Amino acid sequence: MTESNAVRFDHVSKRFGALTVLDDVSFDIPKGSAFCLLGRSGTGKSVTLRHIIGLVQPDSGKVFVEERDITTLSPPALGEARTHMGFLFQNAALFDSMSVGENVAFPMRRHTKLSDADIRTRALKKLADVGLGGDYDKMPGDLSGGMKKRAGLARAMALDPAILLVDEPSAGLDPITAREIDDLLVQTKQAGATLVVVTHNIPSARVIGDDFAVLHEGHLLVHGPVAALDASQEPLVQAFMRSEGGG
Amino acid sequence: MPNLALVDRVGAGVLGLFESVGALASFGARAIVEAFRPPYEVREIARHVYQFGYRSAPLILTAGAAIGVVLSMHTRASLERFGAEAMIPAGLAIALIRETGPLTAGLLVSGRVGSGIGAEIGAMKVTEQIDALEANAVDSFKYLAVTRIIALMIAMPILTLMMDFSGILGGYLAEYAVSGMSWHLYFERAFTYITYSDLIPATLKTVVFGYLIAVAASYLGFAASRGTEGVGEAATRSVVMGSMLIILSDVVLVKLIFFFYPAVSG
To answer: How many CA atoms lie within 13 A of A55 on its CB side?
Structure first.
């Protein structure tokens, strides 16, 4: 692994029972780039993200994050590594016992020594970035699906992570909000963060991504810049790249 | 070979039972170890003590008073036969403080708090909130399970004392309604035969009840799956398992109390 890689999958395989989700998958994600992982539902894209943050362990192979093999880290070291990453879950996974603002403030309360006032100010800023500036005190149950998604993104970005893992950022969002989220992700990348984005939304991926891969039946069908995917003769890749649907 | 199939099924059931008991014991042991490791999550523990303790207080006080009234009526019916009505306050206080109060408080808390813990953690599991905690570099076991276990171990003795107090108060009201006994005389008679060896071990054993209720409920919450159905199942099984563990452990704890405090068994 070179120092310019933020993430590296090295011959990773993962099975759930009889189902092989990842079969000897290898790829690198350079630091400061945006990697978009495409594929049909249930092909293991979210599982790939979970490997990066150590929520899932591979059956074989290694996952390097910022030069450290995440699969062999001790719990404290894994915890420290996770503070460099932000994760937007597919269903946002907001803590429903806390207000939206407290959800965003939570990582800062846990991992910084900022004062309560500073944390609140920063959480408000993060919420404003995703268009939820006035929703600090609302409870997650009071939000629509799209608003939850945006709040989840604000929480994922709370610590300004070096690596942002995003699972379906535009799912359930109207086109205008989806475009705003895309712009925010591009700004985050331009600020130096590495993005790993799982999406079905090809127009969105074209805006965000530098590097693309299509996962199918445990393998990467194709991996490269958007031109490589556009030129691919794989029917599935062609079908994906020609689709304009969101979501 | 139907008999072999039956043996297979029974064997699988027994193995499954041992596996579950082993996993539960391992979960409980891990909680004890983690409780002594930083971070100590004092804020979360305090929040849960408030949730489990303060919010259970109305139920405990009401149930305690009702049990005190019922116990008083039964005690009167029994002791009247021997002309020993004067012993009603003492009989009721001993019964409440030694056994009825702790056990009833444990069962009520198992129903109210145990189901809540099982459902809350179960819901967090199936909605990926536990994964979100881990992704935010928070030890979910410590943050969710250990804090609740410690909080319930703190809240249980307090709730038990509340139940004892409200039970004796309920007993007094029942006695006053029948005989017009004065408050002063009732409490003097009630506490004449009560010693610290009656009160302290019986109250402190509820620390164990709190531990068992919270361990069982947290374990089942973490094991929840299959969406809302799994959450409901975790809540229900938390009550059943917590109540069963309380009753079974009570047998052992009473024996231990008799061993260490022989005066109590006399």
So the answer is: 23
